[in-house]
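Title: Request for sanity check on TetR family transcriptional regulator prediction

Description:
We are preparing a figure and want to confirm that the structure record we downloaded matches what your pipeline produces today. Could someone re-run it with the sequence below and paste the raw structure tokens into this thread? We only need the token string, no images.
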Amino acid sequence: MRPRDESKISAINEKAIEMIADEGLENFGINKLARAVGVSPATIYIYYPDKDELINQISISEGLKMCSAVLDGFDENMNFEEGLWIQWQNRASYAMANQRGTRFFDQLRHSTYKERMQEAIGEEMKKKAGGFVKNAIKRGEINDMPMEVYWSVAFAPLYSLVKFNEDGYSLGGRKFKLTQKIMKETFSYVIKALKK
């Protein structure tokens, strides 16, 4: 059996993320990937049995990296405002430093691959941050609410700002750059909306 060539695997994974992010899932194939990486399709099949497993494994690996970055310095026992601010800073930093990775996740989010990716990410988030909202509710910092409502209020404003930043413009075509001041101001409105 041929030994694993980690540098080849890394090149395959990076190029797959790039191609899916930039060209979409519908234009992605093993032969095209092999040409782009400069290997034969047979080399890719040594490491991945098929295209679906390649995409699934990459999505899980990248999703776990994202979770680790988002939860850096975070503890589920932090007070609500402090813990949410750390998540905001980490999420913004990760998304802005990994724009291609964010576009890769967007492609998967609207595909059949999302289930395995969300399962892996969900488990990791539940393990490390699962008690954060429950603890804030128990301490009387926020009201109990459906998770979808919480997420929409807590994080959707941040991701709108990140998207404006990525595009370089906001509403009406105005130039936009996300600054710490804008992020902190938006965060203050989110905190007012969520805290009792």
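Thanks, this matches our download. The chain has a mean pLDDT of 93.
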